[in-house]
Amino acid sequence: MKVLIPSPLRSYTGQSLVDAQGATLGEVLADLDVRYPGIRFRMVDEQDRLRRHMRFFVNGRAVQELAQPLGAADELAIVQALSGG
Fold first, then answer.
1. The domain that contains 64 carries what CATH number?
2. Is residue 35 part of a domain?
3. What 3-state class would DSSP assign to 30?
4. How far apart are CA 23 and CA 16, in angstroms?
């Protein structure tokens, strides 16, 4: 599947669009971590929960669970939410 990488995480991948494999969001993020060590920790915390400032969209639809099923033809967009004050 194609995965769109946000600019703050491109230091891991060196590119904005990468390939990954997995049947769930969690498996895809684990596959990305094998290919680009350390990237998963930026998206998933120590309690195995998605970090609050990260958003995930599959084919344009927001997903919020690591167990979310994905298909090989899906496109995953990872977005880092902006905050400020």
1. 3.10.20.30
2. yes
3. helix
4. 22
